[in-house]
Write a structure and sequence with these properties.
- The chain is globular, with a radius of gyration of 18 Å.
- It is an alpha/beta fold.
- It contains nine helices and seven strands; from the N terminus they run H-E-H-E-E-H-H-E-H-E-H-H-E-E-H-H.
- The chain has helices at about 5-20, 55-65, 100-105, 110-120, 145-165, 175-180, 185-190, 210-215, 220-230; strands spanning about 40-45, 80-85, 90-95, 130-135, 170, 195, 200-205.
- The termini are far apart.
- A seven-stranded mixed sheet has the order 1-6-7-5-3-4-2, sandwiched between helices.
- Bound molecules: iron/sulfur cluster (SF4).
Length: about 240
C-alpha cells in the first residue's frame, strides 16, 4: 500500500471512530488521538455530526465481546442498556452492580427498584425510557469506574445517546454527571438545574443508591423529576408524592 493510500485509509477509520463518539482510539495502551474540546458542565455541538448514526443493535454488535478495558476480566455479563430505542427520556448511571452483572440488565437491584419506582411515579414505565450506564461492565466491589475504564467505554454510551436522541437525559449521581459533562463539580452543586449535552437537556440528580442511604433526599430527587416532566410537557401524576419506598 502506498503512503497516500495508507493515509486515506487511516483517515476513513478515524472518521468512523469519531462518528461513534470516541475521543480516542479504543486500542489498549494507545495515547489519545481524538480530543474533542468540551466545555465544563455543558457539551455543545450537534448530537449528530453529519455522519451516520448507528442503531442500538449495530452499537451492540460493535461492542462484541468487549475487552477494551480491564473490567472485562471480572464481569459475568456486559450490561448494554435497555428500554425504548425511541425514548424521550434516558437515565444514565455509573455502572452495573452485582445484581446487574448477574442478570445483564441495568438497575435491577435495590437501587434499581428505587429507580423503577421513580419512573412509575413519573407516570412512565421502564419500557418507555432508556436506561444505561457510563461503563457496561461491573467495577469490582462496586468501586467507582476508573478514568481509563470510563474513557474506554463512554464512546459507546455517546453512540447510544446519538441513536436514541432523547429529549431529556437524567444523569444519576456524581460519576455519571462528571463523565458526561466533563466537570469536576460534585452532584450537590450540579443537581436540580438543566445542563446542555449537545442540545439535549440534561438533569443531574442523586443516584438511587444515595437515596437508599439518605431517604430524606427522595424529596429533592422528586423535585428534579418534576422539572424533567415539565420539560417533556408531561403532567405529574402524583404531585404530592416523592420517590417511592
Ligand atoms: Fe468494554 Fe466497556 Fe466493558 Fe470496558 S467496561 S470491557 S470498555 S464494555
Amino acid at each position: 500500500m502506498t503512503n497516500s493510500k495508507f493515509a486515506a485509509t487511516m483517515v476513513e477509520i478515524l472518521k468512523v471512530y469519531d462518528a461513534m463518539g470516541f475521543e480516542f482510539l479504543p486500542i489498549p495502551g494507545r495515547d489519545e488521538v481524538f480530543s474533542s474540546k468540551i466545555e465544563p458542565e455543558s457539551v455543545t455541538g450537534p448530537i449528530d455530526s453529519g455522519t451516520e448514526v448507528m442503531t442500538l443493535q449495530a452499537i451492540r454488535q460493535e461492542l462484541g465481546n468487549c475487552k477494551r478495558c480491564k473490567l472485562h476480566k471480572t464481569r459475568k455479563n456486559m450490561v448494554f442498556g435497555e428500554g425504548s430505542s425511541n425514548a424521550r427520556l434516558m437515565f444514565i448511571g455509573e455502572g452495573p452492580g452485582a445484581d446487574e452483572d448477574e442478570q445483564g440488565r441495568p438497575f435491577v437491584g435495590r437501587a434499581g427498584k428505587l429507580l423503577t419506582s421513580l419512573i412509575n411515579k413519573m407516570g412512565l414505565r421502564r419500557e418507555d425510557v432508556y436506561i444505561a450506564n457510563i461503563v457496561k461492565c461491573r467495577p469490582p466491589g462496586n468501586r467507582d469506574p476508573e478514568q481509563d475504564e470510563v474513557k474506554a467505554c463512554i464512546g459507546f454510551l455517546k453512540s447510544q445517546i446519538a441513536s436514541i436522541t432523547p429529549e431529556v437525559i437524567v444523569a444519576l449521581g456524581t460519576v455519571a454527571t462528571k463523565a458526561i459533562l466533563s466537570t469536576d463539580k460534585p452532584i450537590t452543586r450540579l443537581r436540580g438545574e438543566f445542563r446542555d449535552y449537545k442540545g439535549i437537556k440534561l438533569m443531574p440528580t442523586y443516584h438511587p443508591s444515595y437515596l437508599l442511604r439518605n431517604p430524606s433526599a427522595k424529596t429533592i430527587v422528586w423535585t428534579d423529576a418534576l422539572k424533567v416532566l415539565k420539560a417533556l410537557g408531561l403532567e405529574a401524576p402524583e404531585p404530592a408524592e416523592n420517590v417511592g419506598t
